[in-house]
């Protein structure tokens, strides 16, 4: 059930005088890899048949950012051929290798490039999520005469005319494929209705004679089975058999990590449940891990999503649309209350089954589900879905990381600077137990005992939140990874720090980092750096830099250096954490013969200098060596 308005984020009942809630024990829970999904496309990418290659080139940048799953656009041939984004699906078996609809390749590229992308992602430890469009078909090869009844578009249960004959685009022969992979031809018997009469050119919604809308679908418009094009009858035995066969074929064709199921709001729940069970049996019989399956069910009401998950025995995940709506609402309110950000959301009621997101191809500007989030709030939203514990699986949108094209082009959010750093923080430090500080409407914060203190502020003034990061962190100096809050925070002897944040912003506090811009390639080696370029003092045990410099094998180097390559606009970064040492009034000696490291990436060098440790008064400007 959705939480009542104004209910804070679910948390343990204990509350402490400083405003923190939850477990007092700072010991981190065992670290596991944080799963992070990346949507690898936006709606207005060019129809140049080169997008699979773009993603291949992007893979080396995504893996170091902590991306573990890549959601690719529909790879099946669409009715629009090389101009189609794939949601007007024509042939599920044509992945860009058959000459159909005026093109062999899809808009995204040929089958050979798709196969190469799947291999490249697998080599980088990234699983591919295949976008499966199973609700309808488009681009039929010819028409058929069919008896049908017009229904009320506002209540599809009501018939507004007598049955009459229409000419429907429902005959699919797939001549370019010539029965390869499947000999099934589709006709009017496999569909429930259409929205176009080719004989008259009239647009309406017609229900075919002898058919009925699926009953176990969303109840909007009386019955929301029909969405677009030729609506598939999922109760037809030949349809069910063909989809199960296609699932087996897809599993055998390429190494996938899961599926994104389009428009499940409009498909029989019983069919989806049977299909998912078929996937599970198939994978289990092959001793393969289960697929990660997420459904697109666009509803503002968390009760709809909870009910759907219950009906499917929680076998799949759903996108957390209510959370996106909260992001949009709060970002435009004059006096927003951040404590209500998770009210009525899927990540609050069913976190294990929630996929959280800030934008998608469906919600970007100009789309039918356009859900704007004010730009100033986007980093806050991403910090909430990427850095918190037990808040679902986050999905990062292509357009937010790399920008969008089309009628409303936009650059990467916040100049392309913040999102990669938040992703890096998720990979490196968003681990362990969490303490929430949700006492103020305008300023909230939370701590992760993997080494993060996050503060966010919707007010127009600077704000400070006192938070506990652990006694073992005493005397450490933390900086804002996003570099919006200048200076350092000194953790006191009791493990507390006064973490501050600028107006209408977010600060992600952690130990200092080097951030060194470079292009991203793949080969690494250790080289000597001239002593004149070395900082005058550094901690030799900070990030095993000295030990790594003595390593011989590349694998050993990378094992010892907790470095992460990050996208930085059109470049990338290496970040290496540095742990403070000594006391504020002392300075460590310079270790003799301890060379820094240069990571040579083919034709480009990344110079990694250990950060100097100097006496400091707080606050002061952070210093970064480059």
From TrEMBL:
Name this polypeptide is given: Glycosyl hydrolase family 13 catalytic domain-containing protein
* Residue ranges, annotated region (Disordered): 1-31
- Species of the source: Pyricularia oryzae (strain 70-15 / ATCC MYA-4617 / FGSC 8958)
Q: Which CDD domains match?
A: AmyAc_bac_fung_AmyA
GO:BP terms for this protein? carbohydrate metabolic process
Q: What are the residue boundaries of the Glycosyl hydrolase family 13 catalytic domain, all occurrences included?
A: 35-448
Q: Name one Pfam family in it.
A: Alpha-amylase
Q: Which family does it belong to?
A: Belongs to the glycosyl hydrolase 13 family.
